[in-house]
Amino acid sequence: MTKGSNTALSALSENTGSVIVSLGWSSPGGDGDADVSVLLLGQDGKVRSDADFYFYNNPVAPDGSVHLLDKTPTEDGNEDRISFDLTVVAPEVDRVVVAASRYGGAHFGEQDDLRVTLSDAVGESLLRFTIGDPGQVSAIIFGELYRREGDWKFRAVGQGYDSGLAGLATDFGVDIDDDADSADEDGDGDGDGTTLAATPETAGTAEPAGLSPDPAPEPEPAAALDAVPAPRRSVDETRPRKPAARPRTAKKRAAPPSAPQKSLAENDSWRPARLFPLSALKSDRDREMRATSVLLSVMTQVPRFGRRLTAAFGAPSGRMETFTEVSLPHGDTPRRPDGVIRIERAGKLWTALVETKTNGNALKADQVQAYMDIAARRGYEAVITVSNDVALEGSPLVDVRIDRRRKHQVALWHLSWAEVAHQAQLLIRHEGVGNAARTWLLQELLHYLQHENSGCHGFQNMGSAWVPVRNGINDETLCQGDPRALEVVESWERLIRQVCLRLGGELGQKVLPAQRVRRGTDHGTRRMQLADRLCLEGRLHAELRVEQAPGLLTIGADLRTGRLRTSVEVPAPEQGYPLTWAKRLMRRLGEAPADLHVETLVEGDAVGPRGTLERLRPEPADLLPKNGTQITGFRLSLLKGMGSTRGNTESGFIRSVDDAVHRFCTTVVVHLDQPLPRRAAQKEPV
Fold it and tell me: Is 365 exposed, middle or buried (0-12, 13-18, 19+ CB in 10 A)?
């Protein structure tokens, strides 16, 4: 699509009752992010109340019409997805505006490939709009959904705002709350101390004029912040109710879980009774049946958990029921999928067949194909596969044939057991699910998944190529183009995605892989390049973007030396003197491991001073270059022995990577501040 153009959704697909809008961008340096937001507008171009403004602190509409989903990693950035159930959008809502904003003085001109895509209920991509040159703006309206004669249409907007999230929101009648928590005194979510306010002179134009053959009504000019109307009730309300609370723009902080009560057991041999016992699991079939039943039952009893898993698959928000061992006709032999998920919303049913695998068992293409055919004939919406494997972007786990001639299309989705555990951990430790009983249910599920006998441990095997590739690197006999090197690279990428899930669940923060690639490079080409690099250098490399870390967390595995290196670069502070920076860094790292390596980063190609934390603590001045070279930052690194075997045992490579990342984040990264942009350093006073 081009800027200002529009199209009717019904002309693109028959499955547009529910759609997913994805906003994406990339960064040449592998960093940079933005927050998405959605506004529901009436005929007057304003929100009905502040509750119609959805963002990171108000991500889900009570009626299920809007749901901001988690970020999805892409080649060199992120993609934010928003699920819309257009069948339940209130009749008085005329337009749905989809926007994004940056913070901390950042702007969209620093990002590449700004785009918005829209997919239907079965995951089929319907349209794409790319914003060419956004300029120095901190907020952008990517597009909007609007009604025309009972039909929904999409318009490509691409309109920027100099005044950021505040200007955009107040332009549409949102009353911004400037009360923030201590981490963000101004309430704009960026921690920079500026007030969230918008005036007619600074706010951007909400609707580009003259770009559409059937334009929506122009919004009225925004008033000053103190003139923005307070939250108001809907005009069709027949009984009084409490006005909607004003949305806060500072991220809430979840309280850590309370300490468990002391056990009443006489000794450690007394084992607590479990809701989901594991001792009777003797075969893979037993494990698959038990795991499916446990997962699906908890999804129905903990609605927030069930919604968190199904929203990513385009499912509506509604009453959910789940079933196991359902028999469905298929030729001469009925098929029995492991489970069925059915959701009712406004008299309509959304149905998905579920196929699960445990331990190292792989999904079978013919089995999944049969379920896809059954779902298509019966009018079901999706087939969901669950296994320990992690799907890679652009590489499906199973190849299935999709008959495009069929009127009804079925979506195929994959869910890793690691993702299930990640979502449960987030809700238990950081977000909450409403009451103690539901929390206990999730804890029992998490205990089940983490037990060695469940078979639901996530990605746990580097594959048959791991040992030959490792030996070939040591013997210098591995040649470029060897397909086994590509297999190891793909396994490494799966492992890194799982590490992100586990770390994010522990920290309660977004952890995503950051990949630096050239624009236009496809997934296969990128992995082939990494495989060739592995053959030449004998190293595997990855970068993670941890939400509150001062920089990218780097993981390196040197197969020649058998060592793992985890590191992070801390930029030099905005103000102060180099000696002050070094002393403060030593204080912040007071509880870090003594074997932590600290290296001073300097301008140019010069190498700065370095040493272990144990040696540098008494003499922080040893971190300063003797020739007075400008300091740009500090690199902190921990080294660890690498596991040799391909599995997830104590001596396995996967376990060693997990342990290295966990130790580095919990003993080093948590003690660091997220710095502001650096300015030139002053000379140390004499």
Answer: middle
